[in-house]
Amino acid sequence: MSDPGDLRVPHVALLPSAGMGHLTPFLRLAALLASHNVCVTFITPNPTVSLAESQSLSNFLMAFPQITRKQLHLLPLDESCPNSEDPFYYHFELIRRSSHMLSPLLSSLSPPLSAMITDMSFASTVLPVTDSLGLPNYIFFTSSAKMLTLYVSFHTMLGPNHTIKDDLQVPGLGPIPKSRMPPPLLQESNNLLKTFFIENGKKMTESSGILVNTYESIESETLAALNEGKVLRKLPSVISIGPLAPCFFETSQQLQWLDDQATGSVLYVSFGSRTAMSREQIRELGDGLVRSGCRFLWAVKDKKVDIEDDEKLTEVLGEELLERVKINGLAVKNWLNQEEILSHPAIGGFLSHCGWNSLSEALWDGVCILAWPQHGDQKVNADLVERIGLGTWDKSWGWGDGEMLVKAEDIAQRVSEIMGNDLLKLQALHIRDKARRAVGDCGSSTKSLTALIDTWKKFQ
Ligand code: UDP
Ligand code: UDP
User: How far apart are CA 48 and CA 196, in angstroms?
Assistant: First the structure.
């Protein structure tokens, strides 16, 4: 905590990227900084892609009136903006193309800023803006330190035709095999994700520091490798500040069904905020959950963007499956407050895509994971789940992205294995204790954050 007698209050502006996977850790960081007496301006690109983002933002700002919001109104599309299948990446690009408008916004803030914290997706477009204002800019990397090693190395791995031939090898660290990298990175053709990795990965080396939502006891070797120049010779400090604690600002939900279940008996099934499975895979999954005989709470998602996800459960699952689901589970097709679910005593396991925030929330609550990575950084994250003993991962399931159809009987078997694995449940509780220690009063992440805030005070 800052010394209450210390009147030098740093002022920091935060700029998150599109999607709940980026917005959520930024909101948590904003709340944490505010609790350390930092004055926070939260810049929100407008409009957002999903309803979840706009609702979460307005709930947050109501709960934290001391945090000032500034909107960055995004420029309309022009034809040179490459179209992408992914509405979130498209939005990243829109924000990148509107970055120059930050200059008047940032310089008009009062009191003047001590620093800026920018999402990794905008490093190459926002760092030139803050450089010209003489403002320190820290990049917030919203995935793991392991993923950061790939992010900053990617541009050095490119061969002819802009493809990569080899796995990523960092001395002293396990490799990141090509098969675990986000598939768009392996394509010959250019795509938005590849461009982001190349341009931002290069430019990040010029930032004032890189913040990561991780902590020493799960990624100490990777953090050391990054900070000792083993990944890239010239990197600014990589500062672990996690796991960022959930902050309860969402309105509480009615969970009568969950309240009625026995302690540790329910598997929570969710693939995050922006992953839709094929209908065929959704039905196979439903069948598998029923066959497992375990209790489950299943967040069904049929479209990437929530506003378009308007078909009823009966249409998505079919009447027969929906009836069978009701025997031992509950399927819902609306946004659930996941933080609240994971901390509920009835939850005993989590079938997860291993988005970095879902993973952080599971370890925060000591819930073990059955990993089923779908795309992006999720195989790298699933590997970590296995290595730290938080859960299991059946690698034969491949990527979720329509690569293969995972059959109901395989799902049923893995679900009953994890729900019956008492050792894993104990390990998860142990991991929870260490996670909370990292952000406790004398924890490693707390110390790093306090030191950073002290640096900002000096910049005043
Ligand atoms: N989330 C939630 N309710 C839902 C779906 C997702 O609260 O129904 C939250 C989840 O707790 C996490 C974030 O949305 O904080 C999703 O981020 P993550 O990195 O896990 O995955 P992504 O959605 O980016 O794939
Ligand atoms: N990613 C990134 N920078 C970008 C876009 C994506 O580092 O500009 C990372 C992202 O955090 C993850 C991977 O690329 O490590 C794939 O992202 P994913 O599809 O999971 O998207 P997300 O839900 O994080 O937006």
Answer: 19
